[in-house]
Amino acid sequence: MLDFLILNQRLIKQKPVVRVFSSKIKDMNQTTSDEDQIILGDCIEVMNQMESDSVDMIFADPPYNLQLRQALWRPNLTQVEAVDDEWDKFDDFATYDQFSRDWLSACKRILKPNGTLWVIGSYHNIYRVGSVLQDLGYWILNDVVWVKSNPMPNFRGVRLTNAHETLLWAQKQKGASYTFNHHSLKMMNDDLQMRSDWYFPRCGGKERLKVNGSRAHSTQKPLALLYRVMQVCTNEGDLVLDPFFGSGTTGAAARLLRRRFIGIEREEAYVKIATERIAGVTPLGEDFLLAQTNPRREPRVPFGELIENSFLQPGTTLYFGEKSDVTAQVMADGSLMMNGNRGSIHQLGRKIKSGPVNGWTAWYYFDETRGKRYPIDRLRQKLREYLSRKGDLES
Length: 395
Ligand SMILES: C[S@@+](CC[C@H](N)C(=O)[O-])C[C@H]1O[C@@H](n2cnc3c(N)ncnc32)[C@H](O)[C@@H]1O
Description:
The chain folds into 2 domains: 4-288, Vaccinia Virus protein VP39 (Rossmann fold), CATH 3.40.50.150; 298-390. The protein contains 12 helices and 17 strands. It has helices at residues 2-11, 43-48, 93-110, 126-135, 182-188, 223-233, 249-256, 268-279, 304-308, 345-353, 359-362, 376-390, and strands spanning 19-22, 37-40, 55-60, 111-121, 139-148, 164-171, 197-200, 210-211, 214-215, 239-242, 260-265, 317-320, 327-330, 336-338, 341-343, 363-367, 372-375. The longest helix is centred in the first third of the chain and has 18 residues, at 93-110. Residues 42-43, 61, 63, 87, 217, 219-221, 244, 246-247, 249, 264-267, 270 line the site of S-adenosylmethionine.
């Protein structure tokens, strides 16, 4: 094992970014450290040694139990690279169900009370996994359909093209609070609520990892899928665990989005592939990861505080709209003066428009350095950031 560790330090080149462990290490408390980890071993054994209530989110892509008994050929007589790996073979449904019960129970113990679990599968296994999941007391929040824009045809022409996989998203405890980045997801989706049908191509092209020209892993998932999953229900710094790590797609997305991760994988060859892959991922800059918050939950900042904190000077001209000629002057007490009328940003706005107005987005100031008008809401946001840096705001 030591050789393996050293080998991986070399693969990682300069700074080791992931520590690779054997599951035989005695002190599994190391798995709660801040370091990202890939653990070589059986996921049930490893998880059973981990601390309870320690993981924020689990993404699991378990064996499908495809039960492929014979080779698959295309009409042009080339062989299909199918999922016929040893790790996907189970004697019967009962053995597969027991396996599902064991790993899902282990996951449940190590998930934090407000943690959530994702499982992905196909029609071969997802119904069985879903049933075990519910029996164990998980509460399903959504099922998501990953529609493959480039599915593999049914070469024998005897069934429909199998063009999707299903993801189950469940919480450990029914009714517990959990992370759901509703506002960020809306932002990602052109201001529309994110739906439960997701369209991504199968992993291919440059993204597909290869060893000697062949696929490095038969079921490598697209990075975009894991990127989306992490955006849904995790925040920067959260600990994500993947018990069936394979080529390390979960680790790659976690590193990119600055989440911490633990990956468990039974096959040494895949551990090597994942380690190399993740070493090549550069995390996104922290400034680009700020999640969208719910505006209704943001701390209140009254207009007058912009003046008290010198974000606006008394006497400054504000414009009612980006292009309009209607103006008002900022007064020292936080009111606005317009042609002898005095009132708050909202009251004067209502007078001009004869209807409800949000003064924060209706009034604009002129930014000298940029030569452009901006809504005063921008100053409010800057003031919030300034005050929270000073520790004056409770969020
Ligand atoms: C469906 S693949 C996961 C692929 C992965 N999501 C990716 O994008 O590369 C399942 C993986 O689980 C591993 N595996 C199967 N049984 C396992 C077990 N009991 N403990 C740990 N890993 C296991 C297999 O070796 C295989 O790499």
